[in-house]
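Title: Comparing notes on inverse folding

I've been comparing how different people in this forum approach sequence design from structure. To keep things fair, I'm posting one structure and asking everyone to reply with a full sequence. Here's the target:
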């Protein structure tokens, strides 16, 4: 496909085609495994670990027990109700339990793919990219958990000698990665979708496991090199939804100047709780809390004083 992509391999969670919320136009969004933060409201727990893994999908379980003998390490057991649970300390990620399950109650998340294979999937919709201004978005998890693979994907999308045939590229990132890793990637990126979760370093660390110093520094460096960015701001009840935090976020966006083309508000919704329950996991955020259009209006108006455009929902 392109120089050196055939030697690049990564762990892909999913490839979704014809996406409209991950950058301009119709896009293919490649979701990679692994995350560099640990957000307490995370909607995609299956994307956190870097490698392929089995996660029990307990809502499909028939409590038949047929999977138990397939586990060679004793990592698979059952809870008091007979539903499967996995000890990560014992699990060798052999996937034999998933192969033995006839009910799709043990699901493998993540597959090893070459950059060429991913790009072949992405290129299937090239005609739609050209007519809509769309292209390739690499997301996660956190894509910068696999920087060499991201670089290969982005470079491959730009490999055609005819500039008119190259694919528009977007990087959806939390910003928490070494600047040297971003430098490997950004020469092949047209747009960065940058998460700004909280402006207070202590609160950011409390809710994501890391403070925001590196994130903000990287954002400034991206702006200094002329990188086009859309800031993505989650709106999380009782976490970051204060006027003080959003004002600080808006002022930071203004500090980045013309690099920021707009801002996407991502309102929290309680639907992730259903996924956690299906996985047999606890979810700490209560059902029913979220934002309707009326509640978002003053937040939108606040940001419009600082950035040229605000959208809701990506």
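Reply #1:
Here's my take.
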């Amino acid at each position: 496909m392109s120089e050196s992509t055939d030697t690049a391999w990564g762990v892909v969670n999913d490839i979704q085609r014809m996406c409209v919320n991950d950058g301009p136009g119709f896009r293919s969004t490649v979701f990679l495994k692994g995350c560099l933060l640990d957000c307490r409201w995370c909607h995609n727990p299956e994307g956190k670990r870097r490698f392929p893994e089995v996660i029990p999908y307990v809502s499909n379980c028939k409590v038949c027990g047929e999977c138990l003998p397939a586990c060679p390490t004793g990592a698979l057991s059952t809870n008091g109700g007979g539903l499967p649970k996995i000890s990560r300390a014992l699990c060798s990620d052999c996937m034999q339990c998933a192969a033995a399950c006839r009910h799709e109650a043990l699901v493998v998340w993540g597959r090893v793919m070459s950059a060429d294979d991913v790009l072949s999937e992405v290129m299937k919709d090239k005609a739609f990219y050209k007519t809509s201004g769309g292209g390739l978005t690499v997301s996660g998890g956190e894509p910068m958990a696999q920087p060499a693979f991201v670089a290969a994907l982005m470079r491959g999308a730009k490999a055609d000698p005819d500039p008119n045939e190259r694919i528009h590229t977007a990087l959806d990132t939390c910003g928490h990665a070494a600047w040297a890793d971003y430098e490997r990637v950004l020469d092949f990126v047209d747009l960065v979708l940058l998460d700004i979760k909280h402006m207070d370093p202590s609160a950011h660390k409390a809710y994501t496991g890391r403070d925001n110093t590196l994130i903000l520094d990287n954002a400034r460096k991206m702006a200094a090199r002329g990188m086009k960015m859309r800031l993505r701001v989650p709106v999380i009840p009782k976490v970051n939804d204060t006027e003080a935090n959003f004002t600080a976020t808006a002022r930071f966006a203004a500090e980045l100047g013309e690099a920021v083309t707009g801002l996407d508000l991502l309102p929290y919704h309680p639907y992730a709780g259903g996924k956690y329950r299906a996985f047999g996991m606890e979810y700490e955020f209560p059902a029913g809390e979220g934002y309707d259009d009326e509640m978002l209006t003053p937040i939108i108006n606040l940001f419009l004083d600082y950035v040229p455009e605000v959208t809701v929902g990506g």
